[in-house]
Amino acid sequence: MAKGFVIGLLVGVLLLVGGLYCYFASGMAPAAVGDPPMPFEKKLAKKALNAHIDKQSVAQPPVSADEQNLLAGARVYLENCAGCHGLPGQPPPAIADRMYPPAPLLFKGKGVTDDPPSESYWKTVNGIRLSGMPSFKTHLTDTQLWQVSQLVAHANEIPDSAKKVLVPESAPAMQTPAPAPAKAPPSKQK
User: Fold this and answer.
1) Angstrom distance (rounded) from CA 179 to CA 20
2) Which pLDDT tens digit goes with each residue over 3-48?
3) Which of 1.20.1540.10, 1.10.760.10, 3.30.70.60, 3.40.190.10 would CATH assign to domain 61-166?
4) Model pTM?
5) What is the distance between the alpha carbons of residues 88 and 168, in angstroms, rounded to a whole number?
C-alpha cells in the first residue's frame, strides 16, 4: 500500500513538472510586456523579493535623513532614477508604464515611503531580476546609494531645497506631453 502511494506521488510530481515545462517550452507562457501576468506571478515575485531582502539583513542607514543628505540624494536621483521613476509634480516618464512590471512612480502616492531605507538601498545595490531595475553597486558609492534611499523613503516630506533640485522652478508642473510629430511619408526614389 505504501509503495503504491509513493509511486503515485512520484508520477504526480513528474506530470506536474512535465506540464510546467511544456507550458513554458511551447510558448504559451506570457513573455511580452503587454501580456497579462501568469496566475500568482505578482504575489510570488513579491514574496520571493521580500524574503531575499529579509534574509540579507541590511544594516541601518549610516547616513541620516537630514537636508544635506536629501539634497545629495536628490542629485543622484535626478541623474540615475528619474528617467524611470519620475519627479514630484511631473507627468510620468514615457518609459515607466512600458516596463513589466511597471516602474513605480516614487513621488506619486505613497511610492516607497512605507519601505524602510534599507529595503530601497538593497534594491538600488542589487537591482531586481526580471524587471528593468538595474544594479547600481558599481556605478554609485555606498554613501550615494544610502542618500538616494533616504530620499525615496522620505519622498513625502523632503525639504523645498531638495524639491528644487529635482524640479527647478522653471519646469512646468503636470502638463500632458505633446503628441509625437507625425512621420513624413517615405520618399519615392527611382
Assistant:
1) 43
2) 888 889 889 999 988 888 888 788 877 777 677 878 888 888 888 8
3) 1.10.760.10
4) 0.74
5) 11
